[in-house]
Design brief:
This protein is α+β, with helices and mostly antiparallel strands and about 230 residues long. The protein is built from nine helices and eleven strands. The protein has a six-stranded antiparallel β-sheet with strand order 6-11-7-8-9-10. A three-stranded antiparallel β-sheet has the order 3-5-4. A two-stranded antiparallel sheet has the order 1-2. Helix 1 crosses helix 2, helix 4 packs across helix 5 and helix 5 runs antiparallel to helix 8.
């Protein structure tokens, strides 16, 4: 896979996919779009570098530009991006289930290893894993199910005071943030209760019998299912 400025075409497609589709901070819109500046921010590159790669993706028929110059995945781009996302999630499960890496470590190494696994290898991994439903961070392996599930979830930041919810997914676009989630007990399957917080202060949540503060930006990356 050819790389540009340290990131492959697939990494760019994966980034645009996450900007276009997931819930919470990156709530899905009517069109799958992402601004070049956000792509650059998530990949840690300059806007010029991101813009150059987006032009390449456009030339290859994977991206088209919208009225606001946003990068919109074409049907071909969406199909390829979904394959990349699915591969990433299965490699994460391989690294945690077979190799003994932590969930946070698996994300970093999956980014590094993605281009080295063929489609056949990924399908063999899927079979050996017993066809898992989710990656270690709670994201469905199959992207169609991910989109259907979105309607059931909200970010922790959106949870009303006094409400109880189960953590379902963790945003994984930031490796350091992902590590912070695990270090502080915020993992898929854990129950949290949103408590009252002071204006301009961090959110307060009850987790594991203790009250913990969490800044709103971090809470936007925790996707929960409210308990009825």
């Amino acid at each position: 896979m050819a790389h540009g400025h340290g990131h492959s075409v697939d990494e760019y497609l994966e980034t645009i996919y996450f900007l276009a589709f997931p819930i919470g901070e990156y709530r899905p819109a009517t069109a799958s779009n992402a601004i070049a500046s956000r792509v650059a921010e998530m990949l840690g590159v300059s806007r010029a570098s991101a813009g150059e790669m987006l032009k390449r993706l456009e030339a290859e028929g994977l991206v088209e530009r919208g009225e606001q110059k946003e990068a919109i995945l074409t049907p071909t781009g969406i199909e390829r991006a979904e394959r990349v996302v699915r591969k990433h999630r299965l490699i994460e499960r391989f690294l945690t289930d077979f190799m003994g890496y932590t969930a946070a470590e698996s994300h970093v190494h999956a980014d590094e290893l993605g281009d080295t696994f063929s489609e056949d290898m990924v399908e063999r991994i899927n079979e050996r894993l017993g066809y898992p439903d989710r990656c270690p961070h709670g994201w469905p392996i199959e992207t169609d199910f991910e989109q259907a599930e979105n309607a059931e979830l909200v970010s922790l930041a959106e949870l009303s005071t006094g409400s109880e919810a189960e953590i379902v997914r963790l945003a994984e676009h930031d490796g350091e943030l992902l590590s912070w989630f695990y270090d502080n007990g915020f993992a898929p399957g854990v129950t949290v209760v949103r408590q009252r917080s002071e204006p301009q202060g961090p959110l307060l949540v009850e987790i594991g019998g203790a009250t913990r503060p969490i800044v709103e930006k971090f809470a936007q990356g925790l996707y929960v299912r409210p308990v009825a």
